[in-house]
Amino acid sequence: MSNSGVLPPWLVLDPLLRGWLLEDIGRGDRTTNSLLVEGVRAGTAKWIAKAPGIIAGLPVAARVFQLLNEKVSFVAVTVEGAKCEPGQIVAEIQGSLDALLMGERVALNLVMRLSGIATLTNIYVEKIADLPVRLVDTRKTTPGLRLLEKYATALGGAINHRMGLDDAVMIKDNHIAAAGGIGEAVSRIRSQIPYPLTIEVETESLEQVKEALHHNADIIMLDNMSLDMMREAVQLIRQQDSRVKIEASGNVTLETIHVVAETGVDYISSSAPITQSKWLDLSMRIVL
Predict the structure, then answer these.
(1) Active-site residue, selected from the candidate residues 80, 149, 200, 202
(2) Burial 208-221 (b: 16+ CB within 10 A, else e)
(3) Which residue from 24, 26, 131, 284 has the fewest beta carbons nearer than 10 Å?
(4) Which residues make beta-bridge pairs with 136?
């Protein structure tokens, strides 16, 4: 388990949160506004875990409620990034009932989604905890949620890969095809990118690994290789240039991640902790 996840500043997140609130509230919460037509009063709510897992996203949930009413008090009873058990109180919220009721769904959706990602990420991380290799996430994220989903993988113990196309260079199969080869792709890109961006090359064969080494790639990805080919590729890279980092990728599962790690790679990238995670079930109860 890790508490290394760092949220972006509210300057970045607030427009997203406001948009999601507007999507849900629309022209007004018909139920809440009608219920509280005689005046808004204060109330208290508790968040309760209904399944075991790792909690992620509580600061974001607090912000959701406070965008509706800045006086709302959101107290995290379970520490961000910590494990919870069914029946455990996760948070206690106090404030105007209209803010509690209107913010409930957006806040819960975000925390359930992020907690599910952190939970599955941690299961993957634990599978390779005995080896000097790190799990890395990917850009296979939900549009609009990337910053938060990658925050959740970091809480679960993974390392964030590039956040977007502007973070680093990754030359994939289609880039190689478009350029006419690894050498041409690396040469063109290296002449254009600013210092100190790194260049990663995706390879699918030993010949491509040799070509990537010849053109001084900083990171070499071994994509969808058999275990035997991966071991040979790792040995080849280590012998020729020990500074090059090695990443394994492609169809990594809970059943295969340990044997992949045993090949000697530095990193294993997988989209599964995000794309295959199940939401962690939480509920909110108003207690007046």
Answers:
(1) 202
(2) bbbbbbebebbbbb
(3) 26
(4) 159, 269
202 as an active site residue: the answer is yes
pTM (global) more than 0.85: yes
**DSSP β-ladder status, 89-96 and 199-203:** unpaired
267-269 and 245-249: which strand pairing?
parallel
Q: Is 263 in contact with 238 (CB distance < 8 Å)?
A: no
Give me 173's structure tokens. Answer: 């199969």
Place of tokens 């939480």: 282
List the chain pLDDT tens, one digit each, 288 residues.
Answer: 445 789 999 999 999 999 999 999 999 999 999 999 887 899 999 999 999 999 999 999 999 999 999 999 999 999 999 999 999 999 999 999 999 999 999 999 999 999 999 999 999 999 999 999 999 999 999 999 999 999 999 999 999 999 999 999 999 999 999 999 999 999 999 999 999 999 999 999 999 999 999 999 999 999 999 999 999 999 999 999 999 999 999 989 999 999 999 999 999 999 999 999 999 999 999 998
Catalytic residue among 105, 188, 190, 210: 105
The one catalytic residue among 80, 104, 223, 247: 223
